[in-house]
Every structure is written in structure tokens, then in C-alpha cells.
């Protein structure tokens, strides 16, 4: 595996040079002039090496319908669009890798250690669908900051390898966005791909009437907790897919389990 050392302190990561919103574009009749009925926002991808590869979720790329082309769009300047090619989905987990012919970008290094720890501060920058504005499909950027609330070697969801649960939700459209450590050394802690529901009991009332009948009432609040693939799991997925060139943040990354 030709993973290479990447020093995140050499520059300040700018999201716009690393993260790409993904769109499904209906190309049956050529390049559409209007976004309405021709373009759908799907999710996020990001660069993890210096040869054009991007990572995202399998369910994002599998959302393509007949006649649609997967496109990645830059978030700055002329908003250049790139066709996403060479898509490979992991056969078991919700993970995919692809390639775009983008020249000016910055890869984000994957955390090289195996373990993630609860309480670690993390953040995720992604997009939601903003609807049509002046005939163009608009995406709305949002930044969530929080911490890791649970880790476990086994997964709580069938399409993940292990558990990494977050204190904030994964909004619709955040799938595939990198989960970054909050700190001076920016690196990928994982990749957001889903949610897991938890509940808080807000109210409980119990009453017994004259006939000794018991009545009870409970009110719960449902919390959506984001779920991410860990950076280590991503390295395993990439290795499974035959992708060996990966930027890592540690000089001596943890060896992959075989």
C-alpha cells in the first residue's frame, strides 16, 4: 500500500478546494439549459490523494437514474463541473470511490491511527438542497461542530464496518462529506454517511383510578445522531477496492487488518 505522509500543517485547508457537491444531471438531450427537472443534488465527495480520486457514499452514486450523469461541481470561481468517472462501490459497505479530471485541488489527509475516542472534537461541512433560484439549483452550505459520542468495533448499521456516532445529525445532502478533527492539524476522522435515532424521555405520568386501573403516559424526544465511517475503515475500504495511493496524516499509520 503506497500511502504517503501528508503534513496538514503546511497550509490551512480550504473546504472549497477539497470538497465537491455531487449532482445527477439528465443528459438525454444534451447539456440542459435549465436546472428544473434536469438536475438533482445527491451528496458530497472529497479528494483524498493527488491523482484525482474522490470518496463518497455508495448510496449517493447509486441514486443515479437512467439517462443521468454524475457530475461534481466546484464551489468557487467559475463553478467548473466535472464528470465523475471510474466509479467503484464497495461490495459490502456504504462507500464508493471515483475519479474526476480536476487539476487545482487540495487533498485532505486521512487520520492514520486506528482508534477514535469519544469526546474528540470534530466538524463536518456539507450542503443541503436550496431549491431553484433564478432557474438554477442552489445548494446551501452548513457547518456542524460537535464531538464523537460513541465508538465500537462492531457496527450498529449493516452497511458499516464499525461504529462512530456523532453529537450532531447528518442532514439530507451531507452523505459523503468528510468528518474533520477540530484543531490546528486538519485531517479526516471519518466520512458521514447516515443517522441513528436515540430518544430522551421528557415526561412520564402514571395514574391509578378508583377501579385500580393503571394509566400511564410518556413523551419522548427523538434525537438524530450522525454516523460516520472511521478513517481507518475508509483505508480498509480503499484497499479492498484496489486504491493504494492515500494521503495520511501520520508518518507511521496503523497497519490494515487483512
Q: State which percent range the strand residues make up.
A: over 45%
- Count the E strands: 15
Strand order of the largest sheet: 6-5-2-3-4-8-7
Determine the fraction of residues in helical runs and give it as a percent range: under 10%
What does the radius of gyration come to? Answer: 21 Å
Shape descriptor: globular
Q: TL;DR?
A:
This protein has 258 residues and is mainly β. The protein has helices at residues 58-61, 231-240, and strands spanning 4-5, 19-26, 39-47, 53-56, 68-73, 81-83, 85-89, 96-99, 121-133, 136-152, 163-166, 178-181, 188-208, 214-230, 247-248.
Account of the protein in words:
The structure is a single chain. It contains two helices and 15 strands. Strand 9 (121-133) and strand 10 (136-152) form a beta hairpin. Residues 4-13 have low confidence and may be disordered. It is mainly β. It has helices spanning 58-61, 231-240; strands at 4-5, 19-26, 39-47, 53-56, 68-73, 81-83, 85-89, 96-99, 121-133, 136-152, 163-166, 178-181, 188-208, 214-230, 247-248. The strands form three sheets. It has a seven-stranded antiparallel sheet with strand order 6-5-2-3-4-8-7. The chain has a six-stranded antiparallel sheet with strand order 11-10-9-12-13-14. The protein has a two-stranded parallel sheet with strand order 1-15. It is 5% helix and 46% strand.
Amino acid at each position: 500500500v503506497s500511502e504517503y505522509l501528508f503534513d496538514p500543517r503546511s497550509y490551512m485547508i480550504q473546504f472549497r478546494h477539497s470538497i465537491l457537491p455531487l449532482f445527477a444531471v439528465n443528459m438525454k438531450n444534451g447539456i440542459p439549459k435549465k436546472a428544473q427537472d434536469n438536475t438533482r443534488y445527491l451528496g458530497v465527495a472529497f479528494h483524498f490523494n493527488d491523482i484525482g480520486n474522490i470518496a463518497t457514499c455508495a448510496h449517493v452514486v447509486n441514486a443515479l437514474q437512467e439517462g443521468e450523469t454524475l457530475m461534481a461541481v466546484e464551489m468557487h470561481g467559475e463553478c467548473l463541473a466535472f464528470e465523475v468517472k471510474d466509479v467503484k462501490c464497495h461490495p459490502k459497505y456504504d462507500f464508493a470511490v471515483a475519479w474526476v479530471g480536476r487539476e487545482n485541488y487540495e487533498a485532505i489527509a486521512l487520520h492514520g491511527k486506528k482508534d477514535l475516542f469519544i469526546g474528540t472534537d470534530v466538524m463536518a461541512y456539507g450542503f443541503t438542497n436550496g431549491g431553484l433560484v433564478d432557474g438554477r439549483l442552489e445548494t446551501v452550505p452548513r457547518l456542524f461542530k460537535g464531538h464523537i459520542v460513541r465508538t465500537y468495533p462492531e457496527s450498529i448499521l449493516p452497511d458499516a464496518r464499525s461504529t462512530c456516532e456523532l453529537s450532531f445529525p447528518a442532514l439530507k445532502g451531507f452523505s459523503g462529506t468528510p468528518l474533520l478533527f477540530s484543531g490546528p492539524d486538519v485531517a479526516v476522522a471519518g466520512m458521514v454517511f447516515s443517522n441513528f435515532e436515540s430518544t430522551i424521555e421528557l415526561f412520564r405520568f402514571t395514574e391509578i383510578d378508583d377501579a385500580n386501573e393503571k394509566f400511564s403516559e410518556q413523551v419522548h424526544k427523538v434525537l438524530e445522531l450522525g454516523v460516520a465511517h472511521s478513517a481507518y475503515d475508509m483505508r480498509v475500504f480503499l484497499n479492498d477496492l484496489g486504491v493504494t495511493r492515500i494521503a495520511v496524516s501520520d508518518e507511521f499509520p496503523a497497519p490494515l487488518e487483512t
